[in-house]
Design goal:
This protein has one domain: Alpha-D-Glucose-1,6-Bisphosphate, Chain A, domain 4 (2-Layer Sandwich), CATH 3.30.530. Helix content is 28%, strand content 35%. The chain is built from 3 helices and 7 strands; from the N terminus they run E-H-E-E-E-E-E-E-H-H. The protein has helices at 15-22, 110-137, 150-160, and strands at 2-11, 41-43, 52-55, 58-66, 70-77, 81-93, 96-107. The protein has a 7-stranded antiparallel beta sheet with strand order 1-7-6-5-4-3-2. The longest helix is centred in the C-terminal third of the chain and has 28 residues, at 110-137. The protein starts with a strand and ends in a 9-residue tail after the last helix.
Amino acid sequence: MKVTNNHKRKLLQPKAQVVKLFKTLATKEYKIWPIENWPAIRFNEKLKIGAKGGHGSVRYTIIDFKDNEEIKFQFSKPHGFIGTHEFCINAIDNNTAEITHEINMNTSTVKATFLWLVVIRWLHDALIEDAFDKVENSYSEEKKKTKYSLWVQLLRSAYKRKPFQIKHT
């Protein structure tokens, strides 16, 4: 199954300010990744092409990295996820930036398709919106919190009873 999943958020901040937060990805500072609610993103070495890592049970390798404004990953797990996902920061004008996250992949097994449609897609969307809220909240006194759907709440509740991981073979 072909999967394209896009998230975008405009920020009333210059790109250079947003890039400062981007530089904390997979560090102890976590100013972009919502570690408060989700498994940490970690890599076997600093952020660079070839570094391997992931979050929860999702694994990937960095295949493109451009000056702390774009990072692209190739999936290695779950089995059957064939493709990439990436974060980008783009300047709209001198005072506005846009952050994006995009998945472009195919699921190559029935199990991978099922996992995407029933579980991972929903959790992924909630995680990315939490990350974008965290970035936006770095610049605002009025804190944004995207509400989880009932399905995401149920999935999170189920995984809280166990380690927060989706088992893959």
